[in-house]
Amino acid sequence: MRLLRVTYFALLIAAVSALPFGAAAYPDSAKGLARIEAQGLKYTGSKRLKAMITPPAVAPGAVQYSRSWVDAQPKAEGSDEWRCLSEALYFEARGETVKGQFAVAEVIMNRVKSARFPGSLCGVINQGTGKKFGCQFTYTCDGNKEVIAEPQAYSRVGKVARAILDGNAPKLTDGATHYHTTAVRPSWSRVYTKTTRIGDHLFYRHTWRSASN
User: pLDDT tens-digit profile of 159-194?
Assistant: First the structure.
């Protein structure tokens, strides 16, 4: 509401300033003010009015959490690290919102930066693979072959992975290194600090914090 008032008065000032030289000063009556306003808006011109009320464009390169923004990005590619992150997002979060996918990717990156986890994306994602109940990401030890059956979804999460690796995405999870869906409640969720909820995922970090995460 405050923004609307500011915009209204800005338009009114612009309208009055646009009056031809010699226009009458503000009258005391509301009726006179309305007449002055109408005249001013007439002389201001539609282009100037449109420029004043049009929201500023999103800065080039700024991440937007929408599928249309993702689809507009160039085809993503990269190293093995990019491929590992893209695969993890595909199997772990392709059904999530775009914001949810960025959040999951951020958790993986937070683990890489933490001394308590492997120091690479592929290392973090494949940690514990082959050990019963020891894998960190379920898809790596569920016994199913990793098949990319939805190429469009894979293309999209690949772009999310690229944006994360390029450092273009704002932080979403407040240093989270763990997450789970709302359908389950793992034992660690009772002792870790919950940082946020995005979509169907809850995000957590350890009760301690350090510069490394």
Answer: 999 999 999 899 999 999 999 988 988 888 999 999
* 133 in a structural domain: yes
Q: Is residue 126 part of a domain?
A: yes
Q: Looking at the 3D structure of the chain, how many domains does it have?
A: 2
Model confidence pTM above 0.70: no
Can you give the residue range of the structural domain that contains 25? 2-53
In-domain check, residue 162:
yes
User: pLDDT digit string (tens) for 47-76?
Assistant: 554 555 544 444 546 899 999 999 999 999
Q: Which token pair is 115? A: 């001394």
3-state secondary structure of 180: strand
167 conformational bin, left if phi > 0, alpha if psi -120 to 50, beta if neither: left
